[in-house]
Amino acid sequence: MLNTYQNESLGLDSKNPCILESKFLDCHDLQGKSRNDDSTLLLRDEAEAIQNTKHIQANYTIATLKESFLKTGRLDAEYYQAKYEDIEIFIKNYRGGYVRLELTEIKDSNFTPEQERQYRYIELANIGGNGNISTPTQDLGKNLPTRARRMVKEGDLIISSIEGSLNSCALITKEFDSCLVSTGFYVLKAKDINSETLLVLFKSRFFQEYLKKFPSGTILSAISKEELQNILIPKIDSNTQESIARHLQKSFKLRAKSKELLRAAKQRVEEEIVGGNTKVILES
Fold first, then answer.
1. Contact 107, 150 (CB under 8 A)
2. How far apart are CA 93 and CA 48, in angstroms?
3. Fewer CB within 10 A of the terminal residue: the chain, N end or C end?
């Protein structure tokens, strides 16, 4: 379900969702060679959006100091790979336009837990592959890690800033309101795009490839706040956003219901075992 809405939100053909992804994921190999496939066929459903992109370039870029470091402050060669330029051309030509995250939409202020108060703490390991969150750690403020410094509210989106974990993002539902999360997460609440749509975008293969452009650092590579604001985000129309939100909220409710049914079933089995009512059949 998540993949279907990822494709539809970007205007891709839901029956052939890899058309655009193939352009960026398959046509730029590690040797920097360009394939000779007919890119018009690959992009037949998005030809109008990227009409200025006539062919797929080799995956390298030659830039002057003025065009690179003096403009972006980045000297790492990976930042200037041609595939990222192709992705940004596509986003800039998206029929609905695009936006960037504003400073006020990134909630990164630190929260200091009270020493003797109980808190629930969400860490990287609690984030599931579908944007769901498993049972968080619960402990006194004095026992929590020093990185547990951000409080989240219902409707927020959390995304990992750490390279290698960029697919770890999740929607904060009512169940996890007022939990603490690690400073390794950015907490987002955008005004033009709802959190459900942002989740779909950030989880898509297309966007995951794009996000690899932005991490920097040597010991622990991560996306800085400044680079987070440089990410181009397709502005999905409101009707599509509402549809995505309805379906994701429904899926979260069904997941919560299934967890409750599983818990009740386990409790029933334990009660039967403790009560001695369970018959054990041994083979002779």
1. yes
2. 9
3. C
Q: What are the tokens at 61?
A: 């870029």
For residue 26, report the phi and psi dihedrals to the nearest 5 degrees.
Answer: -105, -25
Q: Which residues contact 94 (CB under 8 A, 6 or more apart)?
A: 10, 11, 49, 234, 235
Radius of gyration of the chain from its Cα atoms, rounded to whole angstroms: 23
Residue with tokens 């984030």: 127
Q: What are phi and psi of 249, to 5 degrees?
A: -60, -40
How many Cβ atoms sit within 10 Å of the Cβ of residue 209? 17
Q: Please answer whether residues 264 and 257 qualify as being in contact, where contact means their C-beta atoms are separated by less than 8 angstroms.
A: no
Here the tokens at position 103 are 């400073």
CA-CA distance, 214 to 230, in Å (whole number)? 9
Q: Quick one: tokens of 18? A: 């890899």
* Structure tokens, 88: 């940004």
| Token duo for residue 143 | 């026992």
Q: Which of 15, 1, 14 minimizes the C-alpha distance to 246? A: 1
Task: Write out pLDDT tens, residues 115-139.
Answer: 999 999 999 999 988 888 989 999 9
User: 204: which 2 tokens?
Assistant: 């898509």
Question: Which residues sit opposite 34 in a β-bridge?
Answer: 28
Query: Which tokens belong to 195?
Result: 């959190």
* CA gap 104, 20 in Å, rounded: 32
